[in-house]
């Protein structure tokens, strides 16, 4: 069983990306033997009201059982609590809010209120550090990267909130993990898509120093090739149980 | 057969205490991926006693010596690019002759001098004379100077390549940061520039764009600092290309531009 907790549907505004349609994503899942994908409506992240993409997302997920919708919540908009309630009612495994893309203070009042509401609703809150390498972004794509300090602040802001952070590299993961109490760190999960494999062996290192239970399988597809996250794991000599945990069990616990 | 045209190794006189582990890790991962030959370079002292991208002559020599030692230690699987700093022309040319004579098979130019600078002409002339390719570190669409390096982009490399049409130039790490789409547009009609697929970038659409721009005839597979991304790109290419096309990318294109006999089955 392999679950991709970090996938997108829909066009990317800054460059041509193949494979953004639902049927193309299904083909990609088949190609790399991924059983299910947590999906977010990608264009919505760039809309003034990102939640306008959620209805399409729910509808698409209803048609394709392998998709699990992760709707976007914007805590600066009037109806955000309803969006959160809709997500819970729809059985979404998580909700997403990328403050840097939505023009929000990453650890400001709105994000803290959202974090608390997610904690109360028992819904994990997903945040991406980045979507693309900062060196290649479109000149007008000026959203900053999520600061590690914001993740530390959010996890401290509410004792029930659980965070899923995607697209983080080794330094980011370590800064947040070792800058948190053990109790706080146990409420943060990290997807592996941006953590380097050999010869630097960052993934092997953080699995050892932080613990495999904190890591989940994510790809960032279709912006990134899903083959990469599988290759990272194939290059490790992981016990079968550990690999299964990263590929499905840990994210199952997060969503439970 | 699989040739990694963009590898690096470390040695004792670098800032990294874990240099041995990193070298072992590259060879171990390479075995798992199926890499037959790592064509590697060492950039001086990797910053210990002179800057990574502006290595002193002494560090250039020491780094190349370390790589020659690795090549002797792993004669079946490691080949070397002689790394030079073209600002010291006499030293650079002497170092190229010394290291090619000792068995290295290419020249590595990092970011000590812009690729279109006339100081690179004597290097390219020697590459032609010795029939070896030049791997040029590239920042894909450099819009300004970056600290610590005098980075070149595809426009500058192509200016050099046009002055030396009989030398094979390798545009380094198309996935290594920057606007790869810009580079692919620039190199399209410069037939002696080859695109190395290495780098941490695994962007959806990048490989399709590479094939469309320069065709499989001018693609070279490599890893650079992240072997997992290299393997991912290789796996994805297998779904895009035929077996014969894959052979070109995996090793046949490399065998064409490196000296005859550089690789085991060549």
Shape of chain B: globular
Largest beta-sheet details of chain A: 5 strands, parallel
| Mean pLDDT, all residues of chain A | 97
Low-confidence stretches of chain B: none
Global Rg of chain A: 17 Å
Strand order of the largest sheet of chain A: 4-5-6-7-8
Total number of beta strands of chain B:
8
Shape of chain A: globular
Largest interface: pair, residues per side = A-B, 30 and 36 residues
Biggest sheet strand order of chain B reads 1-2-3-4-5-6-7-8
| Secondary-structure element order of chain A, N to C | EHEHEHEHHEHEHHEHEHH
Can you give a write-up of this model?
The complex is a heterodimer of chains A (256) and B (266). With 256 residues, chain A is α/β, with parallel strands linked by helices. Chain A is 39% helix and 12% strand. In chain A, the strands form 2 sheets. Chain A has a 5-stranded parallel sheet. A 3-stranded parallel sheet of chain A has the order 1-2-3. In chain A, helix 6 (148-157) links the parallel strand 5 (125-128) and strand 6. The mean pLDDT of chain A is 97. Chain B is α/β, with parallel strands linked by helices. In chain B, helix 6 links the parallel strand 6 and strand 7. In chain B, helix 2 (57-73) runs parallel beside helix 3 (89-101), helix 3 packs parallel to helix 4 (121-130) and helix 6 (180-187) runs parallel beside helix 7 (206-214). The mean pLDDT of chain B is 97. In chain B, strands 1-2-3-4-5-6-7-8 form an 8-stranded parallel sheet. Chain B is globular, with a radius of gyration of 17 Å. Chain B is 42% helix and 13% strand. At the A-B interface, helix 10 of A face helix 1 and helix 8 of B.
């Amino acid at each position: 069983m392999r679950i991709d907790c970090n996938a997108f549907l829909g066009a990317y505004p800054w460059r041509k990306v193949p494979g953004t349609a639902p049927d193309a994503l299904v083909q990609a899942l088949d190609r790399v033997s991924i059983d299910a994908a947590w999906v977010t409506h990608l264009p919505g992240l760039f809309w003034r009201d990102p939640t306008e993409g959620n209805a399409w997302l729910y509808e698409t997920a209803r048609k394709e059982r392998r998709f699990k919708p992760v709707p976007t919540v914007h805590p600066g908009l009037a109806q955000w609590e309803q969006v959160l309630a809709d997500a819970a009612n729809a059985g979404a495994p998580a909700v997403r809010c990328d403050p840097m893309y939505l023009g929000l203070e990453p650890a400001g009042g709105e994000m803290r209120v959202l974090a608390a509401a997610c904690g109360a609703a028992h819904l994990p809150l997903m945040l991406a550090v980045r979507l693309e390498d900062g060196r290649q972004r479109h000149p007008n794509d000026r959203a900053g990267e999520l600061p590690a300090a914001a993740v530390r602040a959010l996890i401290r802001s509410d004792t029930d909130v659980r965070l899923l952070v995607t697209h983080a590299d080794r330094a980011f993961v370590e800064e947040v993990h070792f800058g948190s109490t053990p109790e706080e760190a146990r409420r943060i999960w990290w997807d592996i898509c941006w953590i380097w494999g050999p010869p630097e062996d960052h993934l092997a290192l953080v699995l050892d120093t932080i613990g495999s239970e904190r890591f989940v399988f994510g790809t960032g597809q279709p912006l990134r090739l899903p083959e990469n996250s599988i290759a990272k794991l194939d290059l490790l000599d992981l016990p079968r149980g550990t690999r299964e945990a990263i590929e499905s069990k840990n994210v199952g616990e997060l969503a439970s | 057969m699989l040739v990694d045209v963009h590898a690096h190794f470390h040695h004792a006189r670098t800032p990294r205490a874990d240099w041995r582990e990193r070298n072992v890790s590259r060879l171990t991962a390479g075995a798992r991926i199926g890499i037959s030959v790592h064509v590697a370079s060492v950039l001086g002292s990797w910053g210990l006693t002179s800057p990574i991208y502006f290595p002193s002559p002494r560090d250039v020599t020491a780094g190349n010596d370390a790589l020659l030692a690795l090549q002797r230690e792993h004669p079946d699987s490691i080949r070397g690019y002689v790394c030079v700093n073209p600002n010291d022309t006499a030293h650079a040319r002497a170092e190229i002759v010394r290291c090619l004579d000792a068995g290295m098979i290419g020249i590595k130019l990092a970011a000590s001098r812009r690729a279109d600078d006339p100081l690179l002409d004597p290097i390219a002339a020697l590459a032609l004379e010795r029939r070896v390719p030049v791997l040029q570190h590239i920042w894909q669409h450099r819009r300004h100077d970056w600290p610590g390096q005098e980075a070149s982009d595809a426009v500058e490399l192509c200016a050099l390549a046009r002055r030396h049409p009989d030398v094979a130039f390798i545009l380094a790490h198309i996935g290594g940061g920057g606007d790869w789409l810009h580079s692919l547009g620039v190199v399209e009609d410069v037939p002696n520039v080859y695109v190395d697929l290495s780098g941490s970038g695994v962007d959806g659409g990048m490989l399709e764009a590479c094939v469309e721009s320069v065709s499989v005839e001018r693609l070279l597979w490599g890893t650079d600092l992240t072997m997992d991304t290299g393997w991912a790109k290789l796996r994805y290419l297998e779904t895009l290309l035929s077996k014969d096309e894959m052979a070109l990318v995996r090793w046949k294109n490399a065998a064409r531009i490196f000296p005859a006999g550089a690789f085991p089955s060549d």
